[in-house]
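We treat protein structure as text, and this decision shapes the records that our systems exchange. We quote a single record here, exactly as it is kept in our systems:
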Amino acid sequence: MATILLCTMPLSSATNASLKLAGSLRKRGHQVVFLGIKDGEAMLAPYGYEFLAVYQDWFPAGFVGDWIRSKVDKMSWREQLGFLLSERQKLLRHEAFINFLMAGGDREYVETVRAVRPDLVLVDATLHAHWALLAYRSGVKCAYYNPGLPLSEDPVIPPLHSLLPPATDPPSRAQVRQAWKTFLDRRWRANKLMALAGIADWVGHMRQLARAFGYPLERFNTRTELMPLLDWPMLVMCPQAFDFDAARDRPNIYYAEAFVELDRKEPAFPWDRLNDGKRLVYCSLGSIASSGHFYQRVIDAVAREPDWQLVLNLGPALSPADFHGIPEDAILVNGAPQLALLRKAAVMVTHGGIGTVKECVFFAVPQIVFPIYFDQFGSASRVRYHGLGAAGSFAEADAEAIHALLCDTLRDADMKSRVQAMSAVFQALEAEEAGAVFVESQLG
């Protein structure tokens, strides 16, 4: 059978989705090898896949944690200045890496790929565009897989950072067009401002890399919400039923299942402390964001109802001692077994990361989404569009507002029915393994 090389982002959501795809392909007799930066190795080690780490001098172990660590509580001006200076250093280092690739640094990647001799390279569409350009440079047939939702400009689908619904008439089409224009204009202005700080226009820099690698610039799509994209087929790791109805039949886009990896390794948990007689409210902001202020508001909201029990994933940086008024039976942990908890939860309070949103739907758990940045707003918009939960303002919601949203969600029998119906769609698609079928279609 075929050898398939997966180039993935070493983040929990992307890794979990790629693991499910890899498992489906391995079950069908294919050899799967992962390639990426060093941080991905530890995440994949428990699953028995070969992992090839490249550019370790540029991306040593621990790089991703330093790059993406996100404090979402309000910062003082000193903290903001320190944050901006740190971001400037990151961007300058990234600029230097692109220059290194154009000066012949692509050889390490190309030689590593050619040693594997894959039949197909699959590249995570949320990675920096240089990974796709390196894959193109290797001369092997390539395609994208996207752990989230489509990223390119569209006349009726709003950007993922927006809470707008899809366009259905001339006024809403104008709204969607304006949302895309505002985003692209703002990005252009930001690039000009960064140039004043000595940082190259990263979109133009990627075009330079594409030109250096021989990729046709007319097929290099920079009108996207994240990274520029090559003109490759894209596997979207989400059921089409969850996207807007207007998103059907987009060129080069192939929807599949949700890729919920049920066998993934999860942290230990004090299961004996769960009270089956109470309604379980599970709250987590995922693996990147953390906010003590928001967690305190959730604690205060749940504390009003003696028939609710809170499980709160604090992430790695906070501890229960940082909070007050914690209900006696609340469980605050530094890392939670999310899949196992969703099997028991009555509702989840979430940031709206697409991996978590899909898992809530898969397990038929209504969700209250408090988006913080980027595609989390698009996730919240689709949750509302399909009536699978509610959405609130992360910055503005106080304990009273969170309590009201929890009450409304838990009392809404129609919402629960809609979630169960969408869950049935998700589970049926998971069994069909359409993602593996798509990959096999690219091997010819």
Notes: The first helix runs from residue 12 to 27. The radius of gyration is 22 Å.
